[in-house]
Structures are given as C-alpha cells and as structure tokens.
TrEMBL record:
It comes from [Mycobacterium] nativiensis. InterPro entries: LEH (IPR013100), NTF2-like_dom_sf (IPR032710). One of its GO terms (molecular function) is hydrolase activity. Keywords: Hydrolase. Gene3D superfamilies: 3.10.450.50. The keyword Hydrolase applies. It comes from the Bacteria. Residues 3-127 form the Limonene-1,2-epoxide hydrolase domain. This is Limonene-1,2-epoxide hydrolase family protein.
C-alpha cells in the first residue's frame, strides 16, 4: 500500500465516534509518532496523542468527525499532503466545529510517524476555553 492509500485509510478511520478513535490511532500510528497542530505544543508518542483526543471529548462530547478531503498528494519522498475540511458533529448531527485544514503526514513502515495540521485555531480555542484546566490539554498532564 502506498503512503497516500495509508493516509486515506487513516482519514477514513477518524470518521467515527471519538470514543472509538483511540484504538484507530494506536493501530495506524507509530509508538513514537508526533502530532502537531501548529501554534500549539506537539503531542509526542501515541499515548500523548490518544490523551489529547480523549480530552477533546471532555469539551465536545463523543462527537463524530466528518472529513471532506478536497485534495491529497504524495511527494516523491513519500510525504503526503492533504487539504480538507474537518467538521465535528454531535451524535444528533449538530455541527460544533468546522475547520479548514492542510495536513502533512510522514510515514514509516506503513504507519504514520508525524502528523502536522495547519489551520486557524479560533474554533478549537473557543471550545477548549470551556475546560476547567486548559493547560492540561496542551501538556497532557491533569
């Protein structure tokens, strides 16, 4: 499977209730993976990445992420670039988050080892401001 196909499979697997996402992350990312939303501290290691996703559930609930993949391209070096619109919705279908994103993925041995998203963080920050300890979201330590 080429890297573009791996990233497509990864994106497809992210489109399920948030409570099911940790297992998907563990299955598709390396143990030492790095996930970065530019402007925020990176999540380093699969458990830190899973923790950040679980903490977003504390803000937004067990939402579904629907991803409109607009463009995808794999470079000659195997790096995959995506342009997408991520739309988070409650189980009842209410849109709670809409973020245009450019994502960059590096892979190793068929798994994602680095995932960087570039986006305007306004929508995310509005939701995170509801957390009693927003610093924990960024540090991974409650």
């Amino acid at each position: 499977m080429n890297n573009e196909a791996v990233v497509r499979r990864f994106i497809d697997g992210m489109q399920q209730p948030l409570s099911a996402v940790p297992a998907h992350l563990r299955a598709t990312m390396t143990d030492d993976a790095v996930w970065e939303n530019t402007g925020f501290p990176p999540s380093v290691g699969i458990e830190d990445i899973v923790s950040k996703h679980e903490m977003s559930g504390e803000v937004f609930g067990d939402y579904n992420m629907n991803i409109d993949l607009l463009h995808i391209a794999e470079g000659t070096d195997g790096v995959v670039f995506t342009e997408r619109v991520d739309v988070g919705s409650t189980q009842a279908g209410e849109v709670i988050l809409r973020v245009p994103v450019v994502g960059v993925f590096e892979l190793r041995d068929g798994k994602i080892s680095r995932w960087t998203d570039y986006f305007d963080p306004r929508g995310l920050l509005e939701g995170l401001s509801q957390l009693p300890d927003v610093e924990a979201y960024f540090t991974g330590k409650k």
